[in-house]
Each structure stands twice: as structure tokens, then as C-alpha cells.
Amino acid sequence: MDHILTRDEVTVPENLVYSRTCLLTDNALSYCPGCGHGTAHRLIMETIEEMGLQADTIGVAPVGCSVLAYDFMDIDMQQAAHGRAPAVATGIKRLYPHKTVFTYQGDGDLAAIGTGETLHACNRGENIAIFFVNNGIYGMTGGQMAPTTLPGMKTATSPFGRDTASMGFPLKMTELIAQLPGTYYVTRQAVHTPAAVRKTKKAVEKAFQYQKLNKGLCFVEIVSNCNSGWKMTPLESNKWMEENMFPYFPLGDIKLPKP
Amino acid sequence: MKDIRLMKGNEAIAEGVIRAGCDGYFGYPITPQSEVLEYLMATNTEKRTGMVTLQAESEIASIHMVYGGAGAGKRVMTSSSSPGISLMQEGISFMAGTELPCLLLNVVRGGPGLGTIQPSQSDYFQAVKGGGHGDYKMIVLAPASVQEMYDFAKLGFELAFKHRIQVMVLSDGAIGQMMEKVELDEQLPRLTDEEIVKKYPWATTGKTPDRPRNIITSLDLNPVKQEIININLQKKFKHIEETEVRFERIECDDAEYLFVAYGSSARVCQKAVQLGRARGIKVGLLRPITLFPYPVEEVAKLAKQVKGMLAIEMSAGQMVEDVRLAVNGVVPVAHYGRLGGILPAPDEVIHELEKNFINK
Question: Nearest residue on chain A to B26, judged by CA atoms?
Fold first, then answer.
């Protein structure tokens, strides 16, 4: 090639193969560089845009790193008290059965303080989607032990490693709720590689499609990294996640609709 | 022809919310108010008006379901009794912070702890002074009859949406359980989703191209902004204090002594006023109907007229603090209360009046 294309020559509309969804706002993300939350946000908003659901969707943000999700998602949203997002979503969905309602929750929110609300929303088969970002740590409050912190893992409140004899075991909420008749589609995915992102996108799409068909609760866990909380570089954290998180929280569909 | 029925207080408020066009009830059983949820389920609200009735897994879930529904502009409510209301304080504080309208019913039982299932008025502080965290107030209505249990459903929703505030009906086990005749009025239609979009532009009903997205949140990490939010909340409470005070005066015009009592205690005092007058004591009763806003001016006005005031409460002395603040030392104020689920008797109350002010 005798001419190297300039940036302006490359970024012409006919060369455009990808752009940010219009449903993500221009606000700078509050997440640490390397964190998976941004990708998870993007996949949900892309799906809502592609399915034409913006005017139809009400999201519920949790307490935790994604407490400000409403700053980034250009849809109507309610910010719930810590752990209560599934109850808040139940209130909305029961009164607007034709709207699309989802919660976006972290592991502390969903699997510790909100275990009851999560379990019972799943058990009632609420027609909502729950997106569960599991990074095994409390990120927002500064890296404390979460219900999904792995055995031996060091955190601010388990400085010598999680001792299962006194601190219990990491909770597999996704396997737990998959056993309930109220859940319809339950899957565990990740967003650390392009292939994983594509699979998660499909899972998000299915969750919203099934909701439109009133099939019951759809639950998408996204195992993610917390490079700041884990005190690693983003690359190290992704490697550590593959080697340590995935064996305990294996990726893949856990409950598929019966044909 | 008037529609008059014999009902329990708990049933009356359940019928009242249906007729007031309520969209959703979320609750958890607890004595002595389980009839509310039972009545709503038995009457099949879904079929009757389209109103959703859902039994939640806890009082915590109930109040957050109410938060979700209220945030989307619907007329929603929950009910409970003292221990359950304690569990709801988290959600109530969040609704205060997000200025979401709702109706809450506390059919108070004796505490602390599991206490008893008998009537009490020991949750006055919790209801009136703010039971959850942060600087906030709710409008608190105190029914003294089954008719008022019914009436305050509609009034409660009106006030809640007028001011974007939580309205608590502070009842007690006696008013909730006793039966009286109730005059019912006509069914109000529930608002349609389209009407809600027009009437409540702040509600999360789905972002349409004609407006920015609606966000229901109580979070602002910038303390300067958070102070402004708080100052505006206080302005609203002040406005409510200036415009929404409600009370009833019974035999006050020539009164030399005054009972101050609300709810069941006011019913007891009503009888005590008759007994006192029969004995030649010029005694009246001031019955606050709104506990927040408290009838401060009326108490202060009566303080210039009477020789003494006696606050009667089924508590160790909670509302009496507001009486004393209003009286500001102008006349002596005494308190008499029965605790742990016991109602005072009218002759007991007259005896206390004589002991404190007349046979001194």
C-alpha cells in the first residue's frame, strides 16, 4: 500500500462498522478503567435500542458501584435501596405489566443484603430481567469481602484471606434461583473477551425477548473483574478471573426454556 | 340511597382505598391489621377495579414495592402494625428523599419489641418525628372512628399527591378491630397510564422522545446540592404546616380545662367530657386529626383560655411533648397514659383531671 489512510479518511460514514449506542449518555463512566461494568451497560443499552424499547423500559439501579447507572443509561430509572431492586422492580412491573423492567445489581446487593428480595422475586416468577454483575468484592465501599468472595481471597475485611470456617462459602445465587419454578432463563456469562461479550449480548437479548412473551424471570449473571478491588492490572485481573473465578462460577446456561 | 355498612376499621380503610382509585397494595400479614390484606384479597380488587393486591415476603419488600409503584406515578399503599412499620423505615426514608407519594397505615400495637397485639399509641414519635434516617416529615392522620379510617384513605391519597409526600394513617388496634357504621361514597376511577403521564411528568413511565429521562433517586454526592435538596424539603414541610392542619374541638368554647387526645384516647376523652360536665367541670377536648402538622396554633390559643391541659395517650408521654412546646409554659400541662395495650377508662381520665388541676 503506497498511501497510509489518515484518521479522517478512515472515519468516514461508509467505513463505519460500529458506534456507541445512542442510549448511553455522554457522561464519563464512573467505573475504573478495565472494569467490566461499562461493557455490561453497553450491551443492555444496545439491546434496548435494537429492540426499540426505550419508551417502554424502566430500569432499577442498585447500591454499589453501579448506583449511578442512571447517569449513563438514557432511559427512565429508579435507584433502589441496597438489595431492594427486585422488590422495586416488582412494584413497577405489577402496575405496568406491558413495560419492560430490569434490575442491574452487584454481588453485595443481590447475594447478601438483597438475598430475600432476589429469591422471592424469582420465586414469584416476576416478568422482569435481573442482570447480576459478580466480581466477588464490594467495589464501591473499597474492596470488602462479598458473599461471592472466593475461599482464601484477600479483601479489606478478610485481610488474611476468606476463611470458610468462620466466614462461610461463596454463594452461588444463580444455581440457587435456577431451581425455582418461577425462573425461565438463567445463564452465567462474562465480558472479558470479544467472544464472551458476543455470548452475553445474546443472553441479554433473550432476557428481554422472553420478558415480552411474559415467560417469567430471566436472570443473567455476568462474572466480572474488579481490578481495583483485587489490586491487579486489568489484564492480570482478567487472567486471575479465568483461573480462579470461572472454576467456581462456571460460565454457560444454567436453565434453558424447555422446548 | 346512602350506602351504609357495619364494618371493622381495617375493612373500612381497605374499602376506602379501593373506592379512592388505588392502583396497588403491597403488604405482609401482622396482627392487628391483617384484615386489610384479607379484605382486599377477598373482594378481588384485580377484578373489581384492576387494583393490584400482592402479599410480599416481608414488610421490607412491601415498602420497596410501594416505592417502585409510586416512582412510576401510581396510587400505592401498604399497611402494617408497629414491628412491621419499624422494618419499613428504610423504604420510608428513601421515599422521603425521593418525594414519592404513598399511603401508609400503622395499626399500632403495644411495644417495644414484639410487645403485644393490643392497641397502643406508642409509635407517635416514630410517625411524627421521623422514624427513619434523615431530616424528613410525613403527613400523619389520626382516625378516631371507623368512618375516619374509611375517609382518610381518599384524603390520604389526595394529600400524598398534592404535596408529593408520604401520608401515614396512624391508627391503633382498637380503631382497626372495632365495628361501627360507615357511610361509603362512590367509586373513583383509577387513572389511566396516559393520565398518569400527563399528571405526573416526574414519574418513570418510560422515556419518550419529548422529554429527558426521569430518574427517581435520593442520592447526590455533592453536599452543596444535597443541602439545597434538604432546604427545599424543609420548605415543603413548612408549607404543609401552614396549610394542612386539621383538628376537632369538642366543648371547647367555654372550657376551663382541656383534654388533648387523638385516636382511641380521644374517644375515651369524649365520654370523659360528658362525665366531667355532668359533675359541673367545664372541660373540653381538642382532638388533633393531623399529628404532623400538629395544631400548634390552636393549642396555643386554648392555652390562653384554660387553666390546665391534660394530654391523654396510650403511651408513656409522647404527644404531650408537642402540647408542651405549643403551650410554652403559659398553663400547666399534665400527662396521663396507659401502656402496653391498655385503654384508659373515662372515669380514670376524669379522676386524673381532678387530681392534677381541681383537687390540688
Answer: A91
